[in-house]
Every structure is written in structure tokens, then in C-alpha cells.
Amino acid sequence: MKRWLKISLKILSVILLLVVLTWLAGAFYISRNKKEVLASILEQLNKNLNGKITATSMEPTLLKSFPGVSVSLNGVLLRDSLWARHKHDLLKAQDIDVSLNVLSLIVGNININQIAINDASIYIYTDSTGYSNTSIFKSKPKGEKKSSSKSSVLEVKKIDFNKISLVLDNQKRFKLFNFNIDQIQARMQYPDSGWTGKIKLKTQVNNFAFNTRKGSFLKDKSLEGTLSAHYSRDLDAVILNPEVLNIGGHPFKIGAKIDLDKSAFAISITVDDILFRDVALLLSPNISSKLLKFGIAKPIDIRGNIIDDGSGKYGDPLIKVGIKVRDNAVTIPAGTLTACNFDGAFTNQDTVGGIIGDENSSIKFSKLTAKYFNAPLSIETFTVNNLARPIATGLVTSQFPLSNLNNSLGTNDFEFKNGTANLRLYCQADIDNFRFTKPVVSGKIDIADADILYVPRKLHLVKSALNIKFDQNDLSIQNGHFQLGKSELNISCSIANFANLYYTDPDKILVNLKMHSPQLYLNEFLPFLGPRTAKKKSGSSASMKAASKELSNVLEVSKMNIRLTVDKAIYDKFTAKNLDADISLRGEGIFFNKISVAHAGGLLSLNGNIVQEPSSNSFKISSKISHVSVKDFFYSFDNFGQNTITNKNLKGYLSSFVNISGKISHTGKILPRSINGKVVFNLNNAALVNFDPMVKVGKFAFANRNLSNVEIKNLDGTLNIRGDKVEISPMQINSSAMNFNIKGVYALGSGTDVAMDIPLRNPKGDENLTRSEKREARMRGIVLHLKAVDDEKGGIKIRWNKDHD
Asked: Where is the AsmA domain (predicted)?
């Protein structure tokens, strides 16, 4: 063995022997001087305390910290000077292990290298006045003598906590932090500036409430990791460098600054690739209950800061959070945003210097792009302010094919086949239970080349285009063009106060609609007369169904005034020109306020209404007819639901006042025997052609006269219609074939009873008489008193009228 190695081994042996002897000396000293050592330890621990730490006993644990000497303090209590008032022990431990410096022990000083606290409870209490039991660590009053030696300050190199219950209860600030600490290991150094340390912790969070009235953050979550801490004596602050902590099993990078003098703190939080739900469950119930109404499918990145200035002025700490969402699916109460991208930010102090709380909170989304029910959305900035009474504002832009909306609107009222939509809307809306209510909208929606089926009414609109303009509460439609079958419509409309009434009183919405058509086929609009078609069920979200149902209801109950001008209107056999109509839609009724039209060589004007009913529709019509061709008129209206006197039996020109009511089917047909009312008419230059009752009279009594073409120069009459019966008021008919008086009831079914007084005198012989002479001579000579009644075969027979006047 080389000489230098032998010398080295001898030196090491001597050193080891000295260490062992020193340790034995220290152990012997402790064993023989327990009371004195305990008193020295407590004296060292009590230095600079405004209170007292006590222990019931001490036992040496010699091998625990070799080569140091350890003792175990039992029954340790740490109480501040006002413990008798609040009764909260700052520290209560069954066992505290203290490791002592052997050399300092031998020379008569007690230097503590390490403290391990086991099976203990720590309760840091602040009462409603702001007094805290941590005041035990404040400097003693100035009158007390302080040691100038640095060694007088307690400098523990190692601190271990095992199985510790830690509670921080601040009654003044309504804060409560409660931890079950499985382990904390702190390795400390003491430079002149303060101290630094590495702190390894493993704990369970029972309560982490910045405001006990709003609930706890991190409830029942685990907390595990290592912190790098530094205490600055000049700043009187503890600084935690950003380090990774596992919270609930997910890594968070957390840094902090804690101002001990002001009880202020600032915490920074960074976490990447975490699920939104996992984040929400880390927050207090008043926040998480709201956030969990939303969903984000894929993980997101979050940056946050929690700052409390220690003043207690606002109650809550200042919170700022930023999130980044990329190519994600975001679920909201009104549906799902797919392919969603945005940067989000939250603060509970939107106005700098203002209060901290819901009233001054805001959520901001920037550069948001997404698809909403297949419609692409783009929002540069979207803001929700005042979370106590949330108001959302933002500019929404989108351009998409209308077919993207199919199966997306909840009730399937609309089916889109072609067309595009281009919208640019600035919206402001209240948020009630996470739904937009009473929005105020400015902007426009342009629809072009649309092919739209309105399912409830089976209306198929093609080549449709319109510009919808929103001006806050008002709505207008411009440049509207629709084609329904062969009908073309150009429309414009305005709706005042639409946004308010839509949600509060939709039945008070008044749509002022102007429509012009070069040609209009009225039968293509008959679906408006029928009941709404039952709709297929939709797979859309409940909220979208509710919104679509709400829109559908508004369309049905709102009121509409229509000013309609039509160059040519066609309905089955009816053709009219220059139609000018003022029509109102109210609830279940269509009201014809004023309609005028050129028809059959004359003019028609009418007013009335149609009331929609389940099986058919009721109508009332008041009409004035001026010099129309009676043949064409009867033909156009399908002989008014009867087949006795038809357009084939009539010639001449008709002027009339008509007041009738009746029933019309959902397909637009007048129901037989449903009409009631009164017709006052005048026939001019007329003729009754092949009218069966007249022809039969001719066969009965006037075989030598032409009763198949009876010409009438002028005829005034009144008809009262009662269902299937027409009451003929007494009329004097002067014709080319005969003169006669007529009255009675003509029945479309059974019940015909028409009395006719027919003089045999031939009118041809009276052609040279004056008008007054004709009246006097009219009933001279033989007069036949006949009656038209029902026959057994359902037709009409003529018999003598024995009961004539």
C-alpha cells in the first residue's frame, strides 16, 4: 500500500472517530440534561415570537439525524398572545422532531438544523377585525432588547411536514383554505437577503375559497410537485418561481408572489392541452355551474392570473384568464359550433380602477370562426359584459349556401334547395339563462337565387332574392323577388319595433307589405286558406327547436297589411286586370279592406274577409259590380256554386250590389248551399237563353213564342239567398217573348215554390205604345197564374197556381 494512501486512511479514521465521539458526547449530554435542552430549544423557538410555543416532554431520538443529534418534542402547542380570545391554536402537534447541531450543543448553544412536524394541525386564523394569530411571528415591541447577532435568528435548514391538517381561515375577507398535507419537504438556505428554499409537497385540497359565499376552487383535488421559493427581507414577500405542479393529475405551471405585510398575492397559472370540463371542475361552483353549460370537445390552452392587493376593498381577487381554441367543437345552449377557432379572455375588472365582481366582468372572444348548423360564421370581436346582467355584443359575418341550413332549424318549416346567404350583423342582446334574449340588431342579410319550400303551407318559391335590413328594433325588406309557380312577386316591407315585439307581443307585430306582380295565379296561393301541415320531427337541439317554433309562431300570429297591385290576376276561370288590393292578415283571418279590378268588360270592387276554420273557411263579401258581362261574370265565379242559372243561360251586362257570406273549401271552392246574403242587381240589354223553367212554360202555354231566347232590355231585382234557397222578391220582367211577374223561392234542392203571373198578351203588339200605356196594358186580357214546384224526380214542374193573389 502506498504511503499517501495509508496517511489518508489514518486521517479519515481519526475524523470519523472524532465525529462519533462528538455525537456520543452530544447524545450523552442530551440524555443527562433533558430539561435544560428542552428549555434551550423552546427558548430558541420562542425568539421573536409574540406568543409562546410549549411542549409537554422531550425524548432523544439519537439515530434519526446522525451525525446530528435529534430530539422529539411531544404535545407541542403554539399560541399567540390573544389565544384566550379566539381559541384557535396556531400549531398543535403530537410529535415534532428537532435536529440539533452537536458542536453548538457542546459549547452551550442550541442551533436547530431540522424540524419535522408529524400528525399535527395548523390553524391560521384572522378574525373579523383583521387580527391574525400569525402576529405571533411579528417583531417584538421596540422596548424589548434585540440581539444583533445573526445567530439569534432561527435558521432551520430542513423542514418536514407529515400528515398535517392546514387551515387558513380569514373571517374578515371571507377566505377559507383547508388542506390535508401528506408531505411537505423544505430545504432552506439563509442568505443576507432573506431565505431561499426548495419545497416538495403532496397534499389534498379540501377547500380553496377566495370568497366563502361563492364556494371553493380545487375542491377535493390533489396537489403535488416541487416549488422554488425565495423570501425577500426588503420586500417582506415570498416569491415562488414558476414550477410545474400536478393539480388533479394534470400539470400546471404556477408562479406567485405573496406580500406578507399586506396579505396580498399574485398567482400566475399556465396549462396546456387540458379539457375544458376538467378546468371548469377546478373552479368554484358559482363559476363551474355556468361554465358546464358549455362544452369544448378537444383540449385547450389556458393562461391565467389571480391578483389580490390585500386591501379587501372588493372582496374577490382580480382574475384574468386567456384561452386558445383551435379546430374544436364548442357546445352552447343553442347548438354546437363546429370547426371552431378563437382566442378568449375573461376578467372580473373590465374597467380599470372599477369594482371587481360580476358587474364589471367581461368575456371577450376575438377572431372567432366556426360553423353553426353548417353555416360558417366569422366574428372579429364578440364581448359579454356585466355577468350580473349579461349583455353580448359583436359583429357577425357569414356567407354560405342556403342548403346548409336544411335539417338545422329545429322544426323543418323551411327546406332550401338552392341560393346563397350573405350576412353582416352587429348584434347586442341580453343573456338570460345563457340564451340571447331581445337582441338589438343592425346590419343586413342578402339572399340570392333561393329555392325555398315553406313546408307548413306547401309554398314553393323559386328564383327568390331579397335584402333584409335590420335597424336596431326595426326591420325592412327591400328588392324582394319571388316566383311561385307561374306567379311573380316583387315585394318590399317594413316592420316597426320588430325586435321588441318578437319576444314580448308577437301578435302586435304589424308588417306593412307592398307587392307588385306582372301576373298572379291566385290558385297558387290557396295553401294560405288551409290549415298548417304537420311537420316532421327534427334532430336539432331543444333550444334550436324552441327558437324555430318561436319564429314559426311569430309568422303565424303577426299581423300583416298588404298593398297589392297586379297587372293580370288569374284564378281558375277568373281573369282580371289592373288589380289594386288592400289586404290585411290578422290571426286566423284574411281581410279584404278594398279591392278593385277590371273584369269582364266592367269594374268590380269588394271588401270582406275569410276566417280560417279546421274543416273549411267562412267568408263575408260586400261587392259592387259595374257593367260587367253577366255571361263572363257567372263563368268566372263558377256560377256561384249552383247549376240552375249558369253562364250559358245569360247575356247582357250586370251591375249589382252583393252582400253574401258562405263557406269556401281549403282548395278555394265555394261549398254548395253555404251562401247566405242579398243581391240587388240590374240587367241591361240582357237575354235569358235556354233557361229550363222558361222553356217549359213556353211548351205549356206559348208554343208559338220563342222562350229559348228571351231578351230583356232592363231588369231590376233583389235576391235573398238562404243556403240552398233563393228568395226572389216580386219582379216585373218585361221581355221580348212575354211580360210576367215573378216571386217565390227557388231551391237548389227541394222546396222550389215560384209563383208566376203571365199574361197571354204578346208584347210584340204593344211596341207602339208609350211607356205608361205599356204599364196599363201589361196585365190586360187573359193572365195565366202558374207555379213552379218540385216534381217527383227531383226536377221542376209547372202547375196552375190556384192560390194566386
From this structure: 1-238
In 3-state terms, what secondary structure has residue 44? helix
Instruction: Let me know if 84 is exposed, middle or buried by CB neighbors in 10 A (0-12, 13-18, 19+).
Output: exposed
Q: At which residue does the C-alpha cell 380553496 appear? A: 208
Cell of residue 399, nine digits: 356567407
Q: Are 238 and 260 a contacting pair, CB within 8 Å? A: yes
Distance CA 37, CA 20 (A): 20
pLDDT the model gives residue 494: 87
264 residue type, one letter: A
CA angle 30, 156, 160 (to 5 degrees): 90
What pLDDT shows up at residue 255?
Answer: 93
Neighbours of 65 (CB within 10 A): 20
Print the SS3 string covering 326-352: EEEEEEECCEEEEEEEEEEEEECCCCC
Of 671, 693, 679, 662, which Cα lies nearest the Cα of 758?
Answer: 693
pLDDT at res. 672: 73
- 744 grid coordinates: 217565390
Measured from the Cβ of residue 197, the count of other Cβ atoms closer than 10 Å reads 19
For 24, half-sphere exposure in the C-beta direction (CA atoms, 13 angstrom radius) is 6
What Rg, from alpha-carbon coordinates, does the chain have? Answer: 50
Q: Comparing C-alpha atoms, which of 346, 253, 338 is closest to residue 296?
A: 338
Strand bridging mode 175-189 / 158-170: antiparallel
Nearest alpha carbon to residue 643 among 726, 741, 743: 726
Q: Is the Cα dihedral 311, 52, 49, 158 positive or negative?
A: negative
Answer yes or no: are the C-beta atoms of 763 and 735 closer than 8 Å: yes
pLDDT of residue 145: 47
pLDDT given for residue 84 in this prediction? 87
Q: What pLDDT score was predicted for residue 528?
A: 64
Residue type, 194: G
DSSP assignment letter at 572: T
Give the span between the Cα atoms of 73 and 116, in whole angstroms: 10
Instruction: Read off the C-alpha cell for 371.
Output: 360553423
Question: 700 — phi, psi (to 5°)?
Answer: -75, -40
Distance CA 168, CA 539 (A): 51
pTM here is 0.61
Eight-class DSSP state of 708: S
Indicate if the alpha-carbon torsion angle 294, 299, 303, 307 is positive or negative: positive
**Cβ atoms 40, 98 nearer than 8 A:** no
Residue with cell 304589424: 510
Alpha-carbon distances, residue 65 vs 113, 209, 467, 653 (angstroms): 10, 39, 85, 128
What is the rounded distance in angstroms from the CA atom of residue 183 to the CA atom of residue 199? Answer: 10
Q: How far is the C-alpha of 329 from the C-alpha of 275, rounded, in Å?
A: 12
- With 0-12 / 13-18 / 19 or more C-beta atoms within 10 angstroms meaning exposed / middle / buried, residue 470 is buried
Cite the beta strand spans of 21-111 per DSSP E. Answer: 51-54, 57-60, 69-80, 91-100
Give the sign of the dihedral formed by CA 399, CA 405, CA 408, CA 410: positive
A 10 A CB-CB count for 656 gives 19
In one-letter notation, the amino acid at residue 129 is T
Question: Under a CB-based contact definition with an 8 Å cutoff, are residues 109 and 155 in contact?
Answer: no
Sign, CA dihedral 59-63-65-69, equals: positive
Residue-wise pLDDT for 157-174, tens only, equals 888 999 999 999 988 888
Q: Over the range 663-692, which residues count as b (16 or more CB within 10 Å of their CB) and which as e?
A: bbebeeebebbbbbbebebbbeebbbbebe
| pLDDT tens-digit series, residues 603-657 | 989 899 988 887 888 899 999 999 989 888 888 877 766 676 788 888 899 899 9
3-state secondary structure of 566: strand
**Cβ–Cβ < 8 Å for 80, 74:** no
Ranges of residues in the chain whose predicted pLDDT is under 50: 102-108, 142-143, 145-152, 534-535, 537-539
Residue 530: strand, helix, or coil: coil
Whether 414 and 402 have beta carbons less than 8 Å apart is answered as no
